[in-house]
Amino acid sequence: MTTLYLNVIAGGILIGVVYALIALGLTIIFGVMRIVNFAHGEMVVIGMYVGYGLWSVTKAPPWMIAPAAALVLFVLGYALQRAIVNSFIDRPQHSQFILFISFALMITGLHLVLFGPDPRPISMIESMQSYAIGPLRLDVVRSQAALMALVFIAVLIVFLQRSTFGRSIRAAADNLIGARVIGIRVPTVYSITAGIGMACAGAAGALVAPIFDTQPFLATDFTLIAFIIVIVGGLGSLTGALLGGVLIGLSEALAALMISPALKTVFSYALLALVLVWRPNGLFGEQER
Amino acid sequence: MLQVRNLTKAFRGLVAVRDVSFDVAVNEIVALIGPNGAGKTTCFNVISGALKPSSGSVTLGGELITGLMPEQVAMKGLVRTFQIVRPMRAMSVLENVMIGAFARTADVGQASEIAAEAVRGVGLESKESALAGSLTLPDRKMLELARAIAARPKLLLLDEVMAGLRPFETDRIVEIVRALRASGVTVLLIEHVMRVVVALADRIIVLHHGEKLAEGEPSKIGANPKVIESYLGKRAKLS
Amino acid sequence: MKRTLRPPLWPAAAFFAVAAAFGPLLDTFWLSLLTLVFFYAFMGLSWNLMMSAGLLSLGHALFLGLGAYAAAVLTASTGVNPWLAIPAGALIAALAGSAIAWIGGRFSVRGVQFAVLTIAFAELTRVLFDNWDLVGGTGGFFLKAINPDTNRPLVTLRGGPLYFYFAFLVITAMAYFVIQRLMASRWGFRWRGINEDEDAARALGVPALRSKVLVVAISAGLAGLGGGLFGLMQGSLFPDSVMRLQLSIEVLIAPIIGGLGSPFGSIVGAFFVVPLMEFSNVLGQRIGYYGLNTLIYGVVILGVIAFLPDGIWPRVLRYMNAIRAA
Questions:
Q1: What's the confidence (pLDDT) of residue C3?
Q2: Closest Cβ–Cβ partner in A108, A260, A262 for C294
Q3: Chains contacting C (3 or more CB pairs within 8 Å)
Q4: Do C128 and A101 count as a contact with CB atoms less than 8 A apart?
Q5: What b/e sequence results for B117-155 when a residue is b if at least 16 CB atoms lie within 10 Å of its CB, and e otherwise?
Q6: Is B28 inside a domain boundary?
Q7: Which of B186, B217, C63, C87 could staple C93 via S-S, CB 3.0–4.6 A?
Q8: Cβ-Cβ contacts under 8 Å, A99 against chain C
Q9: Residue ranges making up the domain that contains B227
Q10: What is the number of domains present in chain B?
Q11: Domain ranges of chain C
Q12: Can you give the pLDDT at residue A289?
């Protein structure tokens, strides 16, 4: 019985790492631009389709395809931000919200038109395999996805901490006026940040394509999970997104096992409501009170 | 009217206000002065309920109001203005002031009359329908004042209402405050503009580093060496 | 005596009168379409009310769904008079709204966090309803079909297309006038004050928590009322259809597109958005691509929000004022 729990916990943590990557994209965008991307789940699904598409053509494993998906989404995110979203930065929140809703509708509509509503599973040999580590059986696909997600996260953190551009992003997030004063081109920073945020979503999408069957209507679930993680972890907090992702992945897996699969999201939402009430800025967010 | 006893407010280690006590008698005009960072606005925030004190008490008209919420304190007759003005930008001047008036009446017609009167009192009647967001800073200050007046305060807390105004605008406000006092209102004001303090205040309370340094009539305070030192440093001398 | 400027009420009254007069002249297609328009107009009015105090609801389907299920379950299972069941549903929704507003206000959950809180409660309730046998769970709850020959609409509160057209028209008109009245009252000023600057408002005596709970209670209650009628119209309810996030989003598109500032904006928005949805559906089917409707819908919404940031109705008003001035 304990082996079952251990395996479920391990599986939950693995998927949680990928969730963390999704949440990271959302939280970076918010941290820098104070914009809530309500079409984040749709970006993940774009990544899934890129992953599925390239896999069907090249038969390469999704963890290898993920960088390509990241690149595609980076370009898309950059373009969207530069062309439209930047002009919405100073608009009221409800306007921004409708903007992203319109994106979500267009993306889902486009997916339906191009690919139809039917789920597209990725069947590989690896889908059935698992790594044996002691008593644990770790799903190969999940393990590869989690490892690759960690690589992306590591690259991202190094970029933000070490590179000049990363510093510009952090500067703009910290103190907008100060950043402008020292000559940082804020719209460009925003566009690149949006690109990075979407790239995280896209990469994660390609990584989960073999785990969840690709279809347009998964988008809302991804958006919701990203939001739960980001709010629980703290809007704008990288640590929060990371730990929050693992926490949610874990709690969903355990809730599915211990309560019932149908009610697993109830636990996440209850946790979300509790965090909102107790620490509205998230477990790792700025403590104002 | 107002009794502040042993008021202390600490923010995680930084003690902004330490053991401050003072009284404001009914119908007095008292000025709270001190260098920047002395804790004056923090005092206001605690007295008006925007912050909870770490210890100490605040009594208004004999009633203990420590720890009450801002709206409760306002309903008991203590109305404050903000150092950085906070107009309701998308609402008109009259509508802004009506929000103050609604503290005393539930009737829209009555509130509108009270507000119109307050707007006239500060000289903004020509801009009554203008959106508050379109006003200049001096007008916004007048708006803030009118809004507070419309709430028919027993005790009015003015936080650096003169800051950034030109002399003739300052004089206007001095007149208004005097008229308020004549109509029975008690006033406690934070001010840096000494001309105004001397012209208006019956008594002055000086804060420095969060503690009460001195208290008394304007002439005595001006000559108080400790006060001079707090503003100008140890080696300054007033000739 | 100076009075604040209130929009005259007679143009709206005339509008509703005309809409009512047209009712018997329309065929089933138009009746169904316009009924849906008034449903979304009504829901938009309810959603917009909360927004006036700065409270963004992304879970409005919760109140709709509670009202729908309450009305349906009470009339069908327990045989309660529909004239009581629908208000009961509205009351339940109002209580839910009050609870959420109280939690939000008491624990200082504002802005984005408050919006997510509403999503959390909506989703929680949806999943709970999915697993609740009394309401049919995921299998759904079904009302018995009415017999068109013997049914008396004013008794069962159900009927044909013309009846539901009038029903939604009536409640929309009622909501419009009630909300105009509220916004012109002390509460309206307080809500707008809280929206603009909560701390400044509180310093002037505005009771923040009470005001927020009240506005959400009314907003939710209205949504529950509309939901109840909607439930009786649909005849079959699923948690996934009446409580889902997509519905919460659909509800707010009309008021934002129409214009948040005035209640009439929600009505204008519904008149734009609902036919747009239908037109996209029809076009999508004609051309034969599934999903084309969603794409078109999204593109148009993007167009409107990009070029008419304040919505359609404020722009129309500006044109009308400009013409009058010329």
A1: 47
A2: A108
A3: A, B
A4: no
A5: bbbebbebeebbeebbeebeebbbbbbbbbbbbbbbbbb
A6: yes
A7: C63
A8: 302, 305-306
A9: 1-67+182-234
A10: 1
A11: 10-243
A12: 41
Of A96-100, A236-240, B222-226, C179-183, the least confident = B222-226
Judged by CB atoms closer than 8 Å, whether chains meet at A280 and C113 is answered as yes
Nearest-angstrom CA–CA distance, C109 and C106: 8
Rg (CA), chain C: 20
Closest in C245, C299, C309 to A106, CB measured: C299
Query: Which of C305, C308, C310 to probe by mutation at the A interface, max A CB count within 10 Å?
Result: C305
Cβ pair C291:A113 closer than 8 A: yes
Say if the Cβ atoms of A262 and C127 lie within 8 Å: yes
What order do you get walking across the sheet with B78-80 strand by strand?
A: B78-80, B155-159, B186-190, B29-33, B203-208, B211-216
What does the H/E/C string look like for chain C?
A: CCCCCCCCCHHHHHHHHHHHHHHHHCCHHHHHHHHHHHHHHHHHHHHHHHHCCCCCCCCCHHHHHHHHHHHHHHHHCCCCCHHHHHHHHHHHHHHHHHHHHHHHHHCCCCHHHHHHHHHHHHHHHHHHHHCCHHHCHHHCEECCCCCCCCCCHHHHCCCCHHHHHHHHHHHHHHHHHHHHHHHCCHHHHHHHHHHHCHHHHHHCCCCHHHHHHHHHHHHHHHHHHHHHHHHHHHCEECHHHHCCHHHHHHHHHHHHHHCCCCHHHHHHHHHHHHHHHHHHHHHHHHHCCCCHHHHHHHHHHHHHHHHCCCCHHHHHHHHHHHHHHC
CATH level 3 topology of A2-278? ABC transporter involved in vitamin B12 uptake, BtuC (1.10.3470)
Considering the entire predicted model, what is its pTM? 0.91
Residue B222: inside a domain, yes or no? yes
Give bridge partners of residue B205 from the DSSP assignment. B32, B215
Q: How confident is the model at residue C53 (pLDDT cuts 50, 70, 90)?
A: very high
First to last CA, chain B: 38
Would the CB atoms of A103 and C302 count as touching at under 8 Å? yes
CATH number at residue B29: 3.40.50.300
B237 band by pLDDT with thresholds 50, 70 and 90: low
C residues 132-191 closer than 8 Å to B (CB): 184-186, 189-190
C157-186 per-position pLDDT tens digit = 888 888 899 999 999 999 999 999 999 999
The interface predicted TM-score (ipTM) is 0.91
For residue C2, pLDDT beyond 50: no
Q: Which has the closest alpha carbon to C68: C45, C48, C88?
A: C88
Q: What is the pLDDT of residues A13-67, one digit of tens each?
A: 999 999 999 999 999 998 888 888 999 999 999 999 999 999 999 988 888 899 9
Residue B138 belongs to a domain: no
Residue of A84, A100, A105, A278 to mutate for C, most C C-beta atoms under 10 A: A105
Which of C120, C291, C293 is closest, CB to CB, to A272? C120
Q: Does B92 touch chain C (CB under 8 A)?
A: yes
Across-strand partners of B208?
B211
Helix (H, G, I), strand (E, B), or coil: what is residue B49?
coil
Residue type at C239?
A: P
Partner-chain contact C189 B106, CB within 8 Å: no
Mean pLDDT computed over B219-236: 73
**Mutation for C interface: A88, A98, A225, A229, most C CBs within 10 A:** A98
Q: Do C123 and A93 touch (CB under 8 A)?
A: no
Nearest Cα of chain C lies from the Cα of B126 at a distance, in angstroms, of: 13
